[in-house]
């Protein structure tokens, strides 16, 4: 059995449309038809019924589909494991991380880890903080790094770090909270934890403030760089830009000081997880 026939069948079943299947697989429609015919000949069944130009799965096709999906999954998993073996890896660690963590302090931690454990393959899945708990809970990730405490009951969560939240403005701006908030729009909701409380505090003290919802921190930083606004961001995320005089941190006057927390999420305490957690603790 040719693995290409199985893939063609699964994608064909997904759309019940050979034209759409051909677009996804980058094959011609005659090639799609040929793959299906070869598979049907091998299995001695009709996998699709045809009604004019329309096609749909036969009862045999419905019955065979879960087997085909499982065979493809095993094949792709086996290839991945073999590729890891060829590269010299003998173990794997999958990390689910929030984007702002991935772009700030995670790179040097991963570097330290791979230097200490060079035969462990590292896979980084960047997801929202709201998804980190689910990734670890379902086994898709071995360890998670999140800006919020997850809700899943079958995992362990520990706060590993607290970071001051600072008002960040373009370099050269007046370093006074009220003047900065008069001049610039405040970009909000780029962090999952503190904005509801913070925005209420801002509006209570500075009712004239104008806001702009920008829900990604990296985009927020780019907008600040171009003078489009200011925002309250975790210090670790903007430390480099402050050090090289791209941004300034404006001292709080009326706004209460807030912190941004980093949580480590685990489920199974493998050696890989324990060692990575130790590297994390040493970094903080």
Q: Could you characterize the architecture of this molecule?
A:
This protein is of the alpha/beta class and about 280 residues long. It is built from twelve helices and eleven strands. It has helices at about 5-15, 20-25, 30-45, 60-85, 100, 105-115, 130-135, 175-185, 195-205, 215-225, 235-245, 270-284, and strands at about 50, 55, 90-95, 120-125, 145, 155-170, 185-190, 210-215, 230-235, 245-250, 260-265. Strands 3, 4, 5, 6, 9, 10 and 11 form a seven-stranded mixed sheet that branches. It has a two-stranded antiparallel ribbon with strand order 1-2. Strands 7-8 form a two-stranded parallel ribbon. A hairpin with a 2-residue loop joins strand 1 and strand 2 (about 55). The longest helix has 28 residues, at about 60-85. The N and C termini lie far apart (about 55 Å).
Q: In one word, what is the shape?
A: elongated
β-strand amount: 15-25%
Question: Can you count the beta strands?
Answer: 11
Average pLDDT, to the nearest integer?
90
Count of helical regions:
12
Order of helices and strands: HHHEEHEHHEHEEHEHEHEHEEH
State the end-to-end distance.
53 Å
Q: Give the radius of gyration.
A: 26 Å
Uncertain stretches: none
Amount of helix:
40-55%
State the major sheet.
7 strands, mixed
What class do helices, strands and sheet pairing give? alpha/beta
What attributes does this structure have?
284 residues, two-stranded antiparallel ribbon, 48% helix
Short summary of the structure?
With 284 residues, this protein is α/β, with parallel strands linked by helices. Helices cover 48% and strands 22% of the residues. The radius of gyration is 26 Å and the shape is elongated.
């Amino acid at each position: 059995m040719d693995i290409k026939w199985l893939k063609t069948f699964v994608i064909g079943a997904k759309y019940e449309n050979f034209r759409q299947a051909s677009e996804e697989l980058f094959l011609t429609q005659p090639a799609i038809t040929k793959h299906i015919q070869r598979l049907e000949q091998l299995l001695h069944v009709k996998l699709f019924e045809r009604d004019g130009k329309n096609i749909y799965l036969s009862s045999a096709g419905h019955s065979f589909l879960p087997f085909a999906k499982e065979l493809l999954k095993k094949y792709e998993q086996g290839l991945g494991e073999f590729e890891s073996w060829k590269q010299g890896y003998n173990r794997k660690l999958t990390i689910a991380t929030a984007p702002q963590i991935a772009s700030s302090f995670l790179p040097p931690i991963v570097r330290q880890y791979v230097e200490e454990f060079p035969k462990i393959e590292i896979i980084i899945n960047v997801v929202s903080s709201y998804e980190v708990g689910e990734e670890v809970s379902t086994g898709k990730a071995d360890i998670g790094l999140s800006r919020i405490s997850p809700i899943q009951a079958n995992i362990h969560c520990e706060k590993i770090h607290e970071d001051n939240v600072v008002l960040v403005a373009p370099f050269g701006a007046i370093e006074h909270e009220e003047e900065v908030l008069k001049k610039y729009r405040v970009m909000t909701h780029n962090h999952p934890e503190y904005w509801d409380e913070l925005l209420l505090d801002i509006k209570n003290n500075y009712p004239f403030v104008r806001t702009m919802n920008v829900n990604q921190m990296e985009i927020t930083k780019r907008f600040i760089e171009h003078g489009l606004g200011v925002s309250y961001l975790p210090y670790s995320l903007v430390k480099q830009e402050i050090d090289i005089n791209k941004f300034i941190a404006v001292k709080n006057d009326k706004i209460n000081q807030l912190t941004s927390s980093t949580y480590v999420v685990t489920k199974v305490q493998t050696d890989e997880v324990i060692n990575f957690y130790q590297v994390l603790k040493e970094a903080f």
